[in-house]
Amino acid sequence: IFEQGSAVANTLEERITNNCMLEIETFGDQVEAVRILACGTSYYAGMVARIWLESMGIPCEAEIASEFRYRNPVVPDNALVVAISQSGETADTLAALNQASKLGYKYSLAICNSPFSQMTRVTDLVLHTRAGPEISVASTKAFTTQLVSLLLLMIALAKRRGMTVDEEAEIVSELRALPSRIEALLQMDKDIAELSDYFADKEHTLFLGRGTHYPIALEGALKLKEISYIHADAYPAGELKHGPLALIDAKTPTIAVAPNNHLLAKLKANIQEVRARGGKLFVFSDSGTPIKSDELIEVIEVVKSGPFTSPIIHTIALQLLAYHVAVTKGNDVDNPRNLAKSVTV
Ligand code: F1P
């Protein structure tokens, strides 16, 4: 978790300074649609990227590799398949890539942390995330560097679809500011550790988010499950009234990922829906957020960042929370029970 400032800086250095995006830019103007395939944490990175690419006018689907490998969907013309994997050895993602090739995807790209893995040998191009070795089973710095790589991919594709030089410069400057913002966020470690006692004896936790922060809520829930063994579910906040509200009681805390963006007003209404039913809320929002703490709502203000890097900042705050809850419970955070680093079967 604490290596993420340098992992992100290394990933950016490789791509921006060494201009490694040029290869993608050469076929970028021919790509008419994108399908992202991945498992677990890597799939959540794909879900965020789908929203980013669509916002740039690039049709995109993100799908769980273990489902896609057995399906025969219609393949658009000039489509790019993107596989995301920390290990590059995940059996379902490799099988899904194989299926994509049989179905006729024209271009393929792997976003991968292991430069010599199987995945890097079967795709046309590779974006190597520079996270360094991930020792622990639960993915952390692999995820945040995947998001950085996906943002760079978005720029490379969007440039050919009318993204202006100014728009590109704005995202690149947000990315350049990211490593120092991550370091600032990591200074909150002690504050987040103080929350862990509250969660350590809970059996269930609900996560809520909207837009690009819904996959971040999913990732926060996955981290809590993986290393703290607390059952956690994440929902798009607008889905609350379609079922999950029934779960709210004094024993089930809710974590809302609530950056101060155009969706905050909607999310505030969802927070009130939980509060009105006596549910305790922990709201992760940017500094300066209009949401206020009270007897049921605890606001955790994280470092303010731009719209594209905010999912990364919020993720790290949730990683710290899952980590401290796991430590409080006495779990082996690097080697959670029943899980393997690479799922190769
Ligand atoms: C996918 C994944 C990880 C998870 C665990 C099991 O792996 O689900 O997200 O943390 O390590 O595998 P990968 O394809 O990204 O290596």
Q: Widest sheet: strand order?
A: 2-1-3-4-5
> How would you sum up the global shape?
globular
* CATH H level, superfamily name of the largest domain: Glucose-6-phosphate isomerase like protein, domain 1
Label the CATH architecture of the largest domain: 3-Layer(aba) Sandwich
Profile the largest sheet.
5 strands, parallel
Please work out how many helical segments DSSP would assign. 13
CATH top level of the largest domain?
Answer: Alpha Beta
The whole-angstrom Rg is: 19 Å
Please name the CATH topology of the largest domain. Rossmann fold
* Subunit arrangement of the protein: single chain
Give every kind of bound small molecule, once each: 1-O-phosphono-beta-D-fructopyranose
What's the structural domain tally? Answer: 2
Strand proportion: 15-25%
Mean pLDDT: 93
| Poorly predicted spans | none
Helix content class? 40-55%
Per DSSP E runs of 2 or more residues, the count of β-strands stands at 10
Would you give an account of this structure?
It is a single chain. The protein is of the alpha/beta class. It folds into 2 domains: 4-180, 3-Layer(aba) Sandwich (Rossmann fold); 189-328, Rossmann fold, CATH 3.40.50. It has helices at residues 4-17, 22-28, 40-55, 65-68, 91-103, 118-122, 141-159, 165-186, 189-193, 196-200, 213-228, 264-275, 310-328, and strands at 33-38, 60-64, 79-85, 107-112, 125-128, 204-209, 231-236, 254-257, 281-286, 297-302. Strands 2-1-3-4-5 form a 5-stranded parallel β-sheet, with helices on both faces. It has a 5-stranded parallel β-sheet with strand order 7-6-8-9-10, sandwiched between helices. Strand 3 (79-85), helix 5 (91-103) and strand 4 form a beta-alpha-beta unit. The model has no long low-confidence stretch (mean pLDDT 93). The structure holds 1-O-phosphono-beta-D-fructopyranose. 1-O-phosphono-beta-D-fructopyranose (F1P) binds at residues 39-42, 85-87, 90, 93, 137-139, 341-343. 1-O-phosphono-beta-D-fructopyranose is lined by residues 39-42, 85-87, 90, 93, 137-139, 341-343.
